[in-house]
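>> received
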Amino acid sequence: MLRSLPLIGAMIMSAVTANLLLKTGVAARNAGGLVAILMHPTVLCGLALFGGAAMLYLLVLERLPLNVAQSMMALQFVGVMVGSVVVLGEPMPPARLLGAALITGGVILVGLSATG
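>> returned
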């Protein structure tokens, strides 16, 4: 499990950054439909990062059971919440903060069970 942490971290960071790029790209487009959104450079970069995250996930799946690997992926939700506050200036009400803490606690418990 510990040897997989750098891969898991890179996968989560890629997925979080991809989500932030997609949101930024959608917000930046002036007009047009889905094709215009898909052709926006920021959206294209976000989609490419999702592809990179998927490749990293395949490497994680080689090393960990699916139920552990997928549980680790839940940290991307927390990362997106934090990133949306820091990068996009979105609010983080107390209930959402509690949800992020519960997700993090659950992932820690799964991680501890994977090593013990």
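>> The chain has one domain: 2-115.
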